[in-house]
Amino acid sequence: MPVLVMKFGGTSVANLDRIRRAAKRVGVEVAKGYDVIVIVSAMSGKTNELVGWVGETSPLYDAREYDAVVSSGENVTAGLMALTLQEMDVPARSWQGWQVPVKTTSAHSAARIEEIPTDNITAKFGEGMRVAVVAGFQGVSPEGRITTLGRGGSDTTAVAFAAAFDAERCDIYTDVDGVYTTDPRIASKARKLDKIAFEEMLELASLGAKVLQTRSVELAMRYNVKLRVLSSFEEQSDAAGTLVCDEEEIMESNVVSGIAYSRDEAKMTLISVADRPGIAAAIFGPLSEAGVNVDMIIQNIAEEGRTDMTFSCPTDQVKRAEKAMADAKARGDINYHDLVADTDVAKVSAVGIGMRSQSGVAAKMFKTLSDEGVNIKVIATSEIKISVLIDRKYMELAVQALHDAFELDKA
Ligand code: ADP
Ligand code: ASP
Ligand code: MG
C-alpha cells in the first residue's frame, strides 16, 4: 500500500481534543488506503518548559542530558496518539526514536539523521497495522544515547521518514494553513502561497521562518520529497495548503517572495583586537568548537594595528561565546579590550530567487527602512537574500514596511 507521512506540530496535539481531531484526519487517509506514518511533536509549550528546567538545573549543561530531558515531550504524544487511533479502531502502534531506530550523529541537541531502517515498521504494516506513530525530534547516537535534532526538528523527522519509506507525500499539519509571504501573526497583510520553491523555503527557514525546520527543507530538496504545509484546524482537500516544490513548477514569482525575521539574535563586538594575519581564525575557530553558530561577521576599519570585530549569533549562545573568547584570551591566543553583547537586536531578511536577475532590491530595502527611521546595524547578502540586523523594537514595523514596499500582498 502507498505510504503517507503526516506530521502534527505542537499546537495540533496541544490537548486530548486536538489529538482526537488529528487522529480523525489520520483516519481519513487510512480509509483512502494509505499506510500512514504519523510524526508527532510534544504538546505545545512542553519542550520550552523542559528546556527551561535544564537551564535552571545546569546553565552550561551536558548536552547528552539536555537531550534525555528535552526529547521526552514527544514520547507522551506518540503514545497518546496511538491510543486515540486504537480507540477509533485504527490499528496503530507507537515508536520512540531509538526503537525504529532513527540513527543520528552524536551532535547532541543538533544531531543529523544518518539512517532510518524501514524493516521494523514495514513488517508491522505487513501484519495489518495501519498507522505507525513515531515520536518526532529524537534519535539515537552511535554511542546508544538519545539525541535531538534541534528546535523544530519534528519537521525533519517527518521528511526523513518520507524519504526512507518513499512516501507519496509528506504533509506537515500546523497552526497556519500554509506558507505565507511573511509570518501571518505579525503582518495581517501576509498572503498564503500555493507553491514555494525549495530554495526560497530553505532561505526563509534558515532566516527564521519557523514554519519548517531548515534541515527538513534541505532533505526534501535532496530526496525529492513532495512536501506540503497545511492547517490541522480546518477540513482539508487534497489541494489545500502550500506545496514546497522545484523552481520549475512555479510559473510566475515576485522578485522578493517573502520576508523572514529572527528575534533571537545577538550582536557581539570584540573591542580592539590585533589586526594581524590569523586573527579571524583565532577568534572563529574557538567559537565554532564551542558550538556557537556565527552568522554575520564584520571586521571594522583598523587603526594603529587594532580593530573591532563584530559577529552575530543566537541569543542563547551568548554565554558560550563569551566563555570561548575568555578562554582564548586566557590562553594568549587572542587579545581584546572588551566583549560587548547587544541582545536587543533582530534580523529581518528579504528572500527571492528573482533577486538573481534583478538589481535594486537592496537599495529599496534600505530606503524603506530609512523612511521608517530604522537604523541598520549589520548587513549580509547572498544571491537570493538580503538580511539586516536592527533594534528589536523595530522588528515588526520593519517586516510590515518591507512587506508593503515589495507589494507582497499582491500575487
Ligand atoms: P508547529 O508547532 O506546528 O511545528 P511552528 O510554531 O513551529 O508550528 O510553526 C508554525 C508557525 O510559523 C506559525 O504559527 C507562524 O507564526 C510561523 N511562521 C513564521 N513565518 C511564517 C511564514 N512565512 N508562513 C507561515 N507561518 C510562518
Ligand atoms: N518539540 C520540539 C520543539 O518544540 C520539536 C518540534 O516541535 O518540532 O522544538
Ligand atoms: Mg515547528
UniProtKB/TrEMBL annotation:
<feature type="binding site">
    <location>
        <position position="47"/>
    </location>
    <ligand>
        <name>substrate</name>
    </ligand>
</feature>
<dbReference type="GO" id="GO:0009090">
    <property type="term" value="P:homoserine biosynthetic process"/>
</dbReference>
<keyword id="KW-0457">Lysine biosynthesis</keyword>
<feature type="binding site">
    <location>
        <position position="180"/>
    </location>
    <ligand>
        <name>ATP</name>
    </ligand>
</feature>
<keyword id="KW-0547">Nucleotide-binding</keyword>
<comment type="similarity">
    <text>Belongs to the aspartokinase family.</text>
</comment>
<dbReference type="InterPro" id="IPR036393">
    <property type="entry name" value="AceGlu_kinase-like_sf"/>
</dbReference>
<dbReference type="InterPro" id="IPR041740">
    <property type="entry name" value="AKii-LysC-BS"/>
</dbReference>
<keyword id="KW-0067">ATP-binding</keyword>
<comment type="pathway">
    <text>Amino-acid biosynthesis; L-lysine biosynthesis via DAP pathway; (S)-tetrahydrodipicolinate from L-aspartate: step 1/4.</text>
</comment>
<feature type="domain" description="ACT">
    <location>
        <begin position="268"/>
        <end position="348"/>
    </location>
</feature>
<dbReference type="GO" id="GO:0009089">
    <property type="term" value="P:lysine biosynthetic process via diaminopimelate"/>
</dbReference>
<protein>
    <recommendedName>
        <fullName>Aspartokinase</fullName>
        <ecNumber>2.7.2.4</ecNumber>
    </recommendedName>
</protein>
<dbReference type="InterPro" id="IPR045865">
    <property type="entry name" value="ACT-like_dom_sf"/>
</dbReference>
<dbReference type="InterPro" id="IPR005260">
    <property type="entry name" value="Asp_kin_monofn"/>
</dbReference>
<dbReference type="InterPro" id="IPR018042">
    <property type="entry name" value="Aspartate_kinase_CS"/>
</dbReference>
<dbReference type="Pfam" id="PF00696">
    <property type="entry name" value="AA_kinase"/>
</dbReference>
<keyword id="KW-0808">Transferase</keyword>
<dbReference type="Pfam" id="PF01842">
    <property type="entry name" value="ACT"/>
</dbReference>
<dbReference type="InterPro" id="IPR002912">
    <property type="entry name" value="ACT_dom"/>
</dbReference>
<dbReference type="GO" id="GO:0005829">
    <property type="term" value="C:cytosol"/>
</dbReference>
<dbReference type="Pfam" id="PF22468">
    <property type="entry name" value="ACT_9"/>
</dbReference>
<dbReference type="GO" id="GO:0005524">
    <property type="term" value="F:ATP binding"/>
</dbReference>
<feature type="domain" description="ACT">
    <location>
        <begin position="350"/>
        <end position="411"/>
    </location>
</feature>
<feature type="binding site">
    <location>
        <position position="185"/>
    </location>
    <ligand>
        <name>ATP</name>
    </ligand>
</feature>
<dbReference type="GO" id="GO:0009088">
    <property type="term" value="P:threonine biosynthetic process"/>
</dbReference>
<comment type="pathway">
    <text>Amino-acid biosynthesis; L-threonine biosynthesis; L-threonine from L-aspartate: step 1/5.</text>
</comment>
<feature type="binding site">
    <location>
        <begin position="7"/>
        <end position="10"/>
    </location>
    <ligand>
        <name>ATP</name>
    </ligand>
</feature>
<feature type="binding site">
    <location>
        <begin position="174"/>
        <end position="175"/>
    </location>
    <ligand>
        <name>ATP</name>
    </ligand>
</feature>
<feature type="binding site">
    <location>
        <begin position="210"/>
        <end position="211"/>
    </location>
    <ligand>
        <name>ATP</name>
    </ligand>
</feature>
<dbReference type="InterPro" id="IPR001341">
    <property type="entry name" value="Asp_kinase"/>
</dbReference>
<dbReference type="GO" id="GO:0004072">
    <property type="term" value="F:aspartate kinase activity"/>
</dbReference>
<dbReference type="InterPro" id="IPR054352">
    <property type="entry name" value="ACT_Aspartokinase"/>
</dbReference>
<dbReference type="InterPro" id="IPR001048">
    <property type="entry name" value="Asp/Glu/Uridylate_kinase"/>
</dbReference>
<keyword id="KW-0418">Kinase</keyword>
<feature type="binding site">
    <location>
        <position position="74"/>
    </location>
    <ligand>
        <name>substrate</name>
    </ligand>
</feature>
<keyword id="KW-0028">Amino-acid biosynthesis</keyword>
